[in-house]
Design goal:
Blueprint: H1 5-19, H2 32-35, H3 48-56, H4 66-79, H5 83-108, E1 112-115, E2 118-120, H6 125-136, H7 142-146, H8 151-167, H9 172-188, H10 195-205, H11 226-244, H12 259-278, E3 287-288, H13 297-328, H14 332-336, H15 344-358, E4 371-373, H16 382-403, H17 473-493, H18 498-508, H19 513-525, H20 530-543, H21 549-559, H22 566-577, H23 585-598, H24 602-614, H25 623-635, H26 639-649, H27 658-670
Antiparallel strand pairs: 1-2, 3-4
Helix pairs in contact: 1-5, 1-6, 3-4, 4-9, 5-6, 5-8, 6-16, 6-17, 8-9, 8-10, 9-11, 10-15, 12-13, 15-16, 18-19, 19-20, 20-21, 21-22, 21-23, 22-23, 23-24, 24-25, 25-26, 26-27
């Protein structure tokens, strides 16, 4: 246990050094609000009613994940509604996942007998630490950890890894524990429906025939997988129902693109996942999906997928060939009694793990929203790459070590005895007497049988094979980990707020309409650069004419008083003001009401603002609309209605709402006929 203390401390220190900066980060408007303080059954913390609602409402945000919602409730109950604790809990969960992966690698990487006189553990802590660090510190993990909405990926991986640990242990108790972990993983994110296949793959990876005791592999009967398969089927059915009838999120309904396009996107996404795993460049928050169109990186995805398939096929063929040689007794491995690490069985198990974990997130059978792919989707499938790295480095290291072993000793040329006979170095009868290994110069204190003039035959030195030319693999892998760590640090910093996150997206994809809308909103609200914000809004509207950017643009124009043209505002808000499902309806109605208020059309303004308050709320805050509604009531001579609206606003947590509401309320109480202006 002590020998693992230092690797564990190094791993924990590296993870927290990289991600501790997230404790100062803000929420991102992309899903963070949906899952936390804008979620009706989460924002009040843990309670029996909220937990019941989390289980009973599979349509919220088009995903059923009660375990994840309960974790958010626990954060609010324990630490309050602040943003920092949510981020640090994500870091803690990622650290636990890294430790579980380290322990799983130690269990899976084989130990082989290297010498007849003893054994040596090839699956050392250093190799397991290297493979774990490659996974935990890779830039592709940043999105799941630095983004609060990535909590579902972390919890799903946590319970999956716990379940795999339990599955490797024999006994009914451990089988029951693995089934429970599978259920918790499915309640964290429905993509855990792949757990039965992951368990089977890990059981195949756990080939104990390479251990020193040559014990047979401990396998479970196929009937043990039936409860896992039942959970997977139930989770899949619930996921389809959630995406068929989403609550307030029609954009997350089952993706309706054609099947050929979805298959094409799956192939390209897989290739790009693998490419960015090898070369972590171009990583950002939002990889847009555009049916019928693929950018230039689509070719890169195809090329990477083809190259990886060829390399994997070659390694698989090499493992099959070495296995046949070992079975026939003709191969080097058979002669040295050192079986290969990368067997056909292990390679197929790695492929099964990767494909099974990735398939639910490729959008072939369900929704992936507006994104073609996402780094968070690769959190669980990337475990297969970590396993593969460990086995690959181990196999190459053992191959290189066998190449450096001493070859059979060869004799040194020298004087030969008279007459025919075998070579003196060859055991057996000697023409001049007993075995020369027992007489003559080989025995101290005795004269040589053929005379004193013959010099003593020196003992031959063993010849070593020439160097194989292979690089120092552990050192090379450690260098790769350091490079990944350096690339991950600035990527983590980009998740500080909406502006930094989507600015990085625009740097990588300048035509991303959703990123343009988010940056435009930040330009207006955070920095007060209204002109630039409006120009970005208009460009986003050109790129995404069916998107709700029009409502945001109208909202900005109306609130800033930059457009007195009621017709323009109405044109921009037309489709949102009459749609009862979109959360932008409230924003559009507030824009209409604000414009009518500026034109002193009090009755029309009151009607629009009242409807705005009743509209579905996700990102939209109705407090601004309530404040304007109170002012319209006052100006229309309805002082009592205005007081009724202002009083709750005096308790608002927003620093710009509560003082204004108290100011209006005090003015009304002094003079009910006061005219209020914005």
């Amino acid at each position: 246990m002590r020998k693992h203390l230092l690797p564990v401390l190094l791993l924990v220190a590296a993870v927290w050094f990289l991600y501790s900066q997230t404790g100062r980060f803000e929420f991102l408007r992309l899903d963070d609000h949906d899952y936390t303080f804008r979620c009706a059954f989460v924002k009040d913390g843990l309670s029996a009613a909220n937990v019941k609602e989390a289980f009973a409402n599979p349509r919220h945000a088009a995903i059923w994940m009660p375990a994840t919602y309960i974790s958010y409730m626990a954060d609010i109950t324990l630490f309050g509604p602040g943003m920092g604790p949510h981020h640090l809990v994500n870091v803690a969960l990622h650290t636990l996942n890294a430790l579980l992966l380290y322990a799983l690698l130690l269990a899976l990487l084989p130990r082989t007998a290297d010498a007849p006189g003893g054994t040596r553990a090839v699956a050392s802590a250093a190799l397991a630490l290297l493979a774990t660090a490659f996974w935990a510190l890779h830039p592709q993990r940043v999105e799941a950890v630095a983004w609060i909405a990535g909590r579902k990926e972390l919890l799903c991986a946590l319970f999956t890894l716990l379940g795999l640990h339990c599955w490797l242990r024999p006994g009914r108790r451990w089988t029951l524990a693995a089934t429970l972990c599978c259920a918790l993983a499915c309640m964290s994110k429905p993509t855990a429906m792949c757990f039965p296949f992951l368990a089977f793959a890990v059981a195949c990876l756990n080939d104990t025939t390479l251990t020193t005791d040559n014990a047979p592999p401990k396998t479970r009967p196929l009937t043990a997988y039936l409860p896992l398969l039942a959970l997977a089927v139930a989770t899949g059915a619930l996921a389809v129902y959630s995406q068929t009838h989403p609550e307030g999120r029609p954009e997350l309904a089952l993706f309706t693109a054609s099947l050929p396009w979805r298959l094409l996107n799956a192939a390209v996404s897989t290739g790009l996942y693998l490419f960015q795993a090898l070369v972590p460049v171009g990583l950002h928050l939002d990889y847009r999906a555009t049916p019928g169109h693929f950018p230039l990186d689509g070719l890169l995805g195809f090329a990477t997928l083809a190259a990886v398939a060829l390399v994997f096929g070659f390694i698989l063929y090499r493992a099959w060939k070495k296995g046949r040689q070992a079975d026939d007794g003709t191969g080097t491995d058979a002669q040295e009694r050192v079986p290969p690490v990368l067997t056909v069985r292990r390679l197929l198990a790695l492929l099964l793990f990767f494909c099974a974990a990735l398939a639910p997130t490729l959008g072939i059978f369900g929704s992936f929203g507006e994104a073609a792919r996402a780094d968070r989707f690769f959190y669980l499938p990337s475990l297969a790459l970590s396993f593969g790295l460990g086995f690959f480095v181990l196999d190459l290291s053992r191959t290189a070590r066998r190449g450096r072993r001493a070859l059979p000793s060869q004799s040194v040329p020298g004087p030969q005895p008279d007459g025919p006979g075998p070579h003196p170095d060859v055991p057996g009868p000697h023409p001049i007497g007993p075995n020369p290994q027992l007489v003559g110069a080989d025995v101290p204190g005795r004269p040589h049988p053929i005379g004193p003039d013959v010099p003593d035959r020196p003992h031959p030195e063993p010849q070593r094979s020439p160097k194989t030319g292979l690089p120092p693999l552990p050192a090379l892998a450690a260098l790769v980990v350091l490079v990944d760590f350096g690339a991950a640090f600035p990527l983590v910093a980009s998740y500080r707020n909406d502006y930094t996150a989507f600015s990085r997206t625009l740097a990588c994809d300048p035509d991303n309409g959703r990123a343009l809308a988010h940056v435009a909103s930040e330009e207006c609200a955070r920095f007060g650069r209204i002109d630039r914000g409006i120009s970005l809004y208009r460009r986003s509207q050109e790129l995404r004419p069916r998107d709700d950017t029009a409502a945001q643009l109208a909202y900005t124009l109306a609130l800033r008083g930059l457009s007195s043209d009621y017709a323009e505002i109405r044109r921009l808000c037309a489709k949102f003001a009459c749609d009862h499902t979109l959360d932008r309806k409230g924003m559009a109605l507030e824009a209409l009401g604000t414009t009518a208020m500026r034109q002193r059309k009090w009755a029309e303004a009151i009607a629009c603002l009242e409807d705005s308050i009743k509209a579905p709320q996700r990102f939209y805050s109705a407090e601004d609309a309530r404040l304007r509604l109170g002012a319209c009531y006052c100006n229309a001579g309805r002082a009592m209605d205005a007081i009724r609206v202002f009083e709750p606003l005096t308790q608002s947590r927003r620093a710009d709402i509560a003082p204004r509401a108290r100011q209006f309320l005090d003015a009304l109480k002094r003079n009910p006929k006061t005219v209020l202006f914005f």
